Amino acid sequence: MPEEAKEVWKQVDQYFVDALIAPSERFDFALEVNRKAELPAIDVTSLQGKFLEVLVRGTSSKRILEIGTLGGYSTLWLARAIPDDGIVMTLELEPHHAQIAKQNLEAAGFADRIDLRIGPAADTLAALVKEHAAAFDFIFIDADKASYPEYLQWCLKLSRPGTLIFADNVVRDGKVIDGGHRDPNIQGVRRFTEMVSAEPRLSATALQTVAGKGYDGFIIAVVLH
């Protein structure tokens, strides 16, 4: 992408952040903790985090499932959106990432709303299905893209009519349209998209996004029955 376009996207992001998100709301401390801990700089933006919060509040969701915790930045936005008796179950593969996330969530005062589980997400999801866990109201998938198809299969088993499933980072700088691309993340997204399209229990759409971090997008689906 041209650098001048990226600079415009960044400035527009900042304009709306300044207009719509108070400094006290942005969880900047968590991003700084993540940076110092040398976690990958792949968190959602503050506007995207607020978007997740708005979706959760707008759907009156109380049980949230997040696949991919990283340092807990998106988890913070989700946790703030639920009532005191709600829960965000967040799944993280890397123990170091999970420890940083735990610190951030405790610092924000949301630790009592979080069920942080460490290990391969597919294993945790399978265990939840086996133990007949209650359905989730909102599911945010933001982990390894190659596994999105498997995650979708488990998520459908952990959903109810009306559950929203939000899958992030599906555009991949536009590379998603290349059916022959060798990147397993791109192939994972393509297979995920095909599965969503073929699944009669889902109604879905996709939106492309541009932001200070670049060009991407998401798929959002609602479980019909």
Automatic annotation (TrEMBL):
Enzyme class: transferase
Recorded superkingdom: Bacteria
CDD domains hit by this protein: AdoMet_MTases
EC number: 2.1.1.-
Pfam families reported in the protein's UniProt record: Methyltransf_3 (PF01596)
Any one of the GO BP annotations: methylation
Keyword Nucleotide-binding (UniProt): no
UniProt entry keywords in alphabetical sequence: Methyltransferase, S-adenosyl-L-methionine, Transferase
InterPro entries reported in the protein's UniProt record: Cation-dep_OMT, SAM-dependent_MTases_sf, SAM_O-MeTrfase
Any one GO molecular function term: S-adenosylmethionine-dependent methyltransferase activity
Keyword presence, Transferase: yes
Name of the protein: O-methyltransferase
Organism: Telmatobacter sp. DSM 110680
